[in-house]
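Internal tracking record. Fields below are filled automatically when a chain is submitted to the structure queue. Please do not edit lines marked as system-generated. If the sequence contains nonstandard residues, flag them in the REMARKS field before resubmitting.
Queue: standard
Priority: normal
Entity type: single polypeptide chain
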Amino acid sequence: MSHKVVFTDYYYPSLDEERKVFAGTGIEIVDGKGRCVAEQDTIALVRDADAVVTQFVPITRRVIGELSRCKVIVRYAIGLDNIDIRAATERRIMVANVPDYCIAEVSDHAVAMILALIRKIKVMDGEVQCGNWSYRRAEPIRRLAELRLGLVGFGSIAREVARKARALGFQAISAYDPHVIPSDCPGVDLVPLAVLLESSDIVSIHAPATTETHHLIDGPALARMKPGAFLVNTSRGALVNESDLCRALQEGRLAGAALDVLEDEVKIQGNPLAGRDNVILTPHMAWYSTGSVAELQRKVAEQVRQAILEGQPSNWVNRF
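SYSTEM-GENERATED OUTPUT FOLLOWS
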């Protein structure tokens, strides 16, 4: 018996890693890359799929309502913000992700951004490129041992950031996460969000995008941050109100920001955060390494195989 798995879209040169996982299982791949321009295109492609794999194509309530035999929807990511999980649960369709494929990469990227902000690397590179061989424009720079790092969210990635930050010698590390308990945070002070914002020299965001976290870092939150503090976001753009962040930077209340994610990652031109020497922007690439890509492709295929052949994927998020 064959099983049809539709891949709506993906970043990668090929689906060879997935084919290796499916070899000999009767699972057949339908490659829909480039075909899901509108919602109706997606419906036509996935209607009779046994499993759907998506990267960025929205799997909406309407799409899910048209699925005739789908057992599982899997996303090439940790976050699931482009899948209507409630609608899938109502239809008893399993949803799975890959929560453990890029822990090292994202934590490395966050730490790199933190260090680049503190050491004012972007500013000073610009100075040298213009012929100015002086450190004066970087003043002041404080030692890491004098700085407190605050982590918004304390999942696997944030825990790796904390471990690496301890090795670098930060004065203290605190975290805010309503879903963890103090005994699960060794070496880290678990505090309310307001306390974290008021006491941290660097705030690094590591929380998922949900209705509860939308614009979690807004004007009032930014106003609580220490004057001269830095903000880092390698999580999801929706967690930060960019208009409020721009205002805080323009008024000099924050010293800088480093963002791997934005609210609108399609239209970058005209974003007021771009072009500022105290803002570092990278193109949602914190997850990336050659090793993480192969791992992600393999683990997504494993979730599909487990769901179809064993009845449930190991990373099933909407258990019913």
